[in-house]
Amino acid sequence: MNARPIPARRGFTLMEIILAIGLMLLLVFAVSEAIRTYTTLSTLGREEVEQAQIGRAVLQQFARDIRNVMFTEVPEEDLPIDELGGEEVVAEDDIAPDDLSSDAPAEPLPTGIIGTSTELTIFVRQPDRRMEYVSREEMLSPKDRVSDARLLQYFLAQSGGDGVSGEFARLSLGAGVVKDIVGLARMEGDQAILADALDQNQIDMQVECSQLLAREVVALEFAYYSGDEWLEEWDSEAENKLPRAIEIKISVQLQPEEDRSRFERAEPTEQKERFIRQYRRIVRIPVVPPVEIEDEEEL
Predict the structure, then answer these.
(1) Domain total in the chain
(2) Is residue 92 part of a domain?
(3) How far apart are CA 157 and CA 212, in angstroms?
(4) What phi and psi, each to the nearest 5 degrees, are found at residue 171?
(5) What is the residue-level pLDDT of the chain in tens, covering all 299 positions?
(6) Residue 258 within a domain
(7) What are phi and psi of 218, to 5 degrees?
(8) Element (H, E) at 36
(9) Which domain holds residue 145?
(10) Cα–Cα distances in angstroms (integers) from residue 233 to residues 50, 58, 64, 118, 221, in the given order
C-alpha cells in the first residue's frame, strides 16, 4: 500500500515579508504619533492651567496691596499757591534756623500711589497680624515693623537694569547663569526708612527689602485711570487724589523656549504665542470722602 505523499509547505515570499514589515512599521509610527500628540496636548493643558494659576495669584496680590492704600487729601485752602497760581516752592535758604530744630513738627509721611508704566509704589497702613513691632532704636532692618505705615513697590528685575532692578537681578542669578528677565519683585519695608532709601538711592537697603515674587513673569505694565483718561504715570501728591483704577498687565512664561526641545519644529511666532500668555486686570479704587461731623451732639 502506497503512502499518501505529504504536500510540501510553502514559505513566505520576500515581497510578503517586506509588506508585513512595512505595515508593522506604519502601525508603530501611527501609535507613537498618537501617544506623542496626546502627551503634547496634555502637557500644554497642564502648562496653561499652571500659567493661569500664577497669573491669577500675582494679580490677586496686586489687588490686595492696592486696596490697602492710604491717602489723605489736602484741602484746597491748605495748598500753598504762589502769585502766578502755581504751587509755591520754598527754597532751603528761606527756611529759618528755628524751623530746623528738633522741636519742629516732622513732615507727614507721603500717602497714595506713585507709579510709572513699569513700576508701582504704594503707601499702605496695614497692621501687623503678629503684632511684632520694634522701636526705631532696636530696628536692625527696614523690614522690621516699626509702625503700620508701610511702603510697597513692584518692579521687574532685569539684568543690566538701572538701580535696584539690575542689582537685585544680579544677586538673584547664580554664577554663570545668564537671563535677561529674572522675574517680578516686590519691595516692602518701613515707610519712613524705605522712602528715605529711595530718595537717597541706597540700593543695598532696597535690595534687602525686596523678594522675588514670581520668576515666571517676564513683562509688566501699568496704566492709571484719572476719571477721564488712561495715563502712563501717576503721583498722588501732585494730583492730590488717587486714580480711579489701575490697569495691570503681566506676561507669564513657565520656562525659556530653548528648553522645550519637543517643539523645536514650531515657528518662532507660534512658540511665543504658545509659551507666553498675557493676563490683565483692572483694580478699582473706591474713594470715599471722610465724614464731616459738625456737632457731636447729633450722634
Answers:
(1) 1
(2) no
(3) 8
(4) -75, -25
(5) 566 666 666 667 888 888 889 889 988 888 888 888 777 666 666 778 888 899 999 999 999 999 889 888 877 665 555 444 554 444 444 444 444 444 444 566 778 999 999 999 999 887 777 777 777 767 777 777 777 888 999 999 988 888 889 889 888 886 556 678 899 999 998 888 888 888 888 898 899 889 999 999 999 999 999 988 999 999 998 998 999 999 999 999 876 544 444 444 445 554 455 578 899 999 998 775 555 556 555 44
(6) yes
(7) -115, -5
(8) helix 14-67
(9) 33-72+108-288
(10) 32, 21, 21, 9, 11
Q: Is residue 20, in this structure, part of any structural domain at all?
A: no
User: Residue 185: exposed, middle, or buried by beta-carbon count in 10 A (0-12, 13-18, 19+)?
Assistant: buried
Inside any domain, residue 189:
yes
- Kindly report the number of other CB atoms within 10 A of residue 218's CB atom: 21
- 276 phi/psi in degrees, rounded to 5: -120, 125
Edge-to-edge strand list for the sheet holding 112-115: 210-214, 181-190, 149-158, 120-125, 112-115, 234-235
